[in-house]
C-alpha cells in the first residue's frame, strides 16, 4: 500500500475514533479568529505538559486522559492516539488529541491530509454539519481551522495541525451561545506543539 493511501486512511480513521470518544465523553461559529496569546481570561487555569511532551496548553482543570493504538489497514503499523479533555464550570469541554504516525508526513500533501481528517470528523455521526473551515498556518505549521455542529446543538470549534509525523486536534465543544469567544481564542493560542523527532 502506498504512503498516500496509508496516511489518508489512517488520518481519517484516527479522527473518526477520536470524535467517537469525544462525543461519548462530551468532552470541541464561524471563523476561527487569531489574536495575540493573552491568557488573562485563563487565570487560574493549569498549564499542562503531558509525559510525552508533545505539546503544552492551558486547561481549566487537570484533563482526563485516554490512550489507544490504532491499527493502520493492510499493515502491521499503528498510530498512537492520546486524548486530553477538561471541562469548565459552564460545561464547555477543552480538548487536545495527538496522533503519532510511524513515519513523517509528506509536507507537500499537508492540505490533502488535513482535509481528509476533517472529512472524517464531519462524517463520524449522522447530522454533523460543517459550518466553516479554512486551510491556514498555525504556530508555523500547516493547519485547518473548523467549526462543526451536531444534531444536539453542540459546536466543535478548533484546529487540526500537522507537524513532522504528528497530527494534532485542538478544539472546544460547547452548546451554541455558551462559550465566551475570548476564552476560546486564548485556549487555542495557549496550545503549543513541542514535538522533537528524537523524543518518540
The strands making up the biggest β-sheet line up spatially as 3-4-5-9-8-7-6
Q: Which percent range describes the beta-strand content? A: 35-45%
Q: Radius of gyration over alpha carbons?
A: 16 Å
Q: What would CATH call the architecture?
A: 3-Layer(aba) Sandwich
What is the total tally of β strands? 10
What does the largest sheet look like?
7 strands, antiparallel
Question: Can you tell me the overall shape?
Answer: globular
Chain-averaged pLDDT: 78
Describe this protein's structure.
With 200 residues, this protein is an alpha+beta fold. It has one domain: Protein Transport Mog1p, Chain A. 24% of the residues lie in helices and 38% in strands. The chain has three helices and ten strands; from the N terminus they run αβββββαββββαβ.
What is shown here, in short?
The protein is α+β, with helices and mostly antiparallel strands.
Question: What features would you highlight for this structure?
Answer:
200 residues, 3 helices, alpha+beta, 10 strands, Protein Transport Mog1p, Chain A
SSE order and pairing:
Layout: H1 3-25, E1 46-48, E2 55-59, E3 64-71, E4 78-87, E5 93-100, H2 110-123, E6 129-138, E7 141-149, E8 154-163, E9 166-175, H3 181-190, E10 192-193
Amino acid at each position: 500500500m502506498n504512503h498516500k493511501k496509508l496516511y489518508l486512511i489512517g488520518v481519517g480513521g484516527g479522527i473518526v475514533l477520536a470524535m467517537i470518544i469525544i462525543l461519548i465523553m462530551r468532552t470541541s461559529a464561524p471563523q476561527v479568529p487569531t489574536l495575540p496569546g493573552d491568557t488573562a481570561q485563563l487565570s487560574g487555569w493549569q498549564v499542562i505538559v503531558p509525559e510525552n511532551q508533545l505539546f503544552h496548553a492551558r486547561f481549566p482543570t487537570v484533563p482526563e486522559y485516554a490512550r489507544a493504538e490504532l491499527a493502520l489497514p493492510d499493515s502491521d503499523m499503528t498510530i498512537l492516539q492520546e486524548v486530553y479533555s477538561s471541562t469548565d464550570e459552564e460545561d464547555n469541554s477543552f480538548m487536545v488529541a495527538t496522533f503519532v504516525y510511524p513515519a513523517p508526513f509528506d509536507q507537500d500533501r499537508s492540505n490533502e491530509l488535513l482535509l481528509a481528517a476533517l472529512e472524517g470528523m464531519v462524517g463520524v455521526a449522522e447530522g454533523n454539519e460543517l459550518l466553516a473551515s479554512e486551510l491556514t498556518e498555525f504556530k508555523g505549521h500547516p493547519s485547518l481551522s473548523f467549526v462543526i455542529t451536531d444534531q444536539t446543538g453542540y459546536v466543535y470549534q478548533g484546529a487540526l495541525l500537522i507537524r513532522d509525523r504528528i497530527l494534532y486536534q485542538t478544539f472546544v465543544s460547547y452548546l451554541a451561545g455558551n462559550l465566551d469567544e475570548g476564552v476560546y481564542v486564548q485556549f487555542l493560542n495557549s496550545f503549543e506543539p513541542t514535538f522533537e523527532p528524537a523524543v518518540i
